[in-house]
């Protein structure tokens, strides 16, 4: 049996559907998905099997014009993930077309794409007419020599199997990099923190910007098979603490219940989840918080 294994970087603008595609490919929820842009901070690796090939996905933060230290570190992580990968897949939203952001990514691909297989996946194809899709496909392929183009809907699953099958055959021959039943290489503490952060993002909508982070500070395995998980939600202002807690603690209670339910489903056992909210004015400038998110603090330097 000839086995193949390698890293595949999914790149694109924020909200292009990278996390949805990763979760669809892997068949489990390993990357948080929200309607808000820029929810993926760390390079989450999801592992999928396709025949004798092991596909290791690097779900990078969306590529955008960085303004703050955290933004710069996220963009550096995205390009770093692409530069380290065996195959790169650029996701473009069909209905948004070639935006200024996509043009910037195409320029970046000229630098890191040399000697690397780069495919194009046009996502959310159900949102546009066929002729518009053909025109967009031509425009993008004229701008960059993609190895292959796929028309997909990550949310509905259309075209995803064809993309996964093609990727499996593009990877280099070699032994598998992870145990066959492993779906992600992130520590469970980080996955748990991401799940809570997703629930906060969904619950708070526009009330709170990206000035909060979640850290799993304690994980205790109990004799009855359950897990006790303690997490701290860090915010930068006292006012933000009140928003996260909500009136009579209703918001934090709802977030805790939703996160616990998803964790129990993911871990397939009972979970006791305890959340605390702490004000930490400078967490966006703390190296330790960046390493918690799998980002390099130094990459955030202007």
CATH topology of the largest domain: Rossmann fold
Radius of gyration, rounded?
20 Å
Annotated CATH architecture of the largest domain: 3-Layer(aba) Sandwich
Largest sheet: 6 strands, mixed
Mean pLDDT: 79
Secondary structure tally: strands: 9
Shape: globular
CATH superfamily of the largest domain: P-loop containing nucleotide triphosphate hydrolases
Unreliable spans are 32-42
Oligomerization state of this entry? single chain
Q: Number of helical runs?
A: 9
**SSE string:** EHEEHEHEHEHHEEHHEH
Number of structural domains: 2
Strand order, main sheet: write it out. 2-3-1-4-5-6
**What class do helices, strands and sheet pairing give?**
alpha/beta
Q: How much strand?
A: 15-25%
Residue share in helix: 25-40%
Task: Describe the model.
- The protein is an alpha/beta fold and about 300 residues long.
- The protein folds into 2 domains: about 5-170, Rossmann fold (3-Layer(aba) Sandwich), CATH 3.40.50; about 190-300, GMP Synthetase, Chain A, domain 3 (2-Layer Sandwich).
- It contains 9 helices and 9 strands.
- The protein has helices at about 20-25, 70-85, 100-110, 130-145, 160-170, 190-205, 240-245, 250-265, 285-290, and strands spanning about 5-10, 45-50, 55-60, 85-95, 115-125, 150, 210-220, 225-235, 270-280.
- The model is unreliable at about 30-40 (pLDDT under 50).
Name the descriptors.
single chain, 302 residues, alpha/beta, Rossmann fold, GMP Synthetase, Chain A, domain 3, 6-stranded mixed beta sheet, 3-stranded mixed beta sheet, 9 helices, 9 strands, 37% helix, globular
């Amino acid at each position: 049996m000839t086995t193949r294994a390698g890293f595949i970087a999914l790149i694109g603008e924020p909200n292009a559907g990278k996390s949805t595609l990763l979760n669809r490919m892997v068949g489990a929820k390993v990357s948080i998905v929200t309607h808000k842009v820029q929810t993926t901070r760390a390079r989450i690796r999801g592992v999928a099997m396709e025949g004798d090939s092991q596909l290791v996905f690097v779900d990078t933060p969306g590529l955008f014009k960085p303004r703050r230290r955290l933004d710069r570190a996220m963009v550096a992580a995205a390009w770093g993930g692409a530069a380290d990968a065996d195959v790169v897949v650029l996701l473009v939203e069909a209905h948004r077309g070639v935006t200024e952001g996509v043009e910037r990514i195409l320029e970046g691909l000229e630098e890191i794409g040399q000697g690397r297989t780069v495919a194009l996946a046009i996502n959310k194809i159900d949102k546009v007419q066929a002729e518009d899709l053909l025109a967009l496909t031509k425009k993008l392929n004229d701008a960059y020599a993609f190895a292959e183009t796929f028309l997909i809907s990550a949310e509905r699953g259309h075209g995803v199997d064809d993309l996964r099958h093609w990727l499996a055959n593009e990877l280099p021959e070699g032994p598998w990099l992870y145990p066959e039943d492993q779906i992600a290489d992130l520590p469970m503490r980080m996955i748990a923190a991401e799940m809570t952060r997703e629930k906060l993002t969904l619950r708070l909508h526009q009330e709170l910007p990206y000035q909060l982070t979640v850290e799993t500070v304690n994980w205790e395995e109990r004799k009855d098979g359950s897990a006790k998980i303690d997490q701290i939600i860090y915010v930068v202002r006292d006012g933000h603490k009140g928003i996260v807690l909500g009136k009579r603690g209703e918001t934090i209670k709802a977030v805790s219940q939703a996160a616990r339910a998803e964790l129990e489903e993911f871990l397939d056992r009972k979970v006791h989840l305890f959340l605390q909210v702490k004000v930490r004015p400078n967490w966006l400038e703390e190296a330790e918080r960046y390493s918690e998110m799998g980002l390099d603090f130094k990459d955030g330097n202007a």
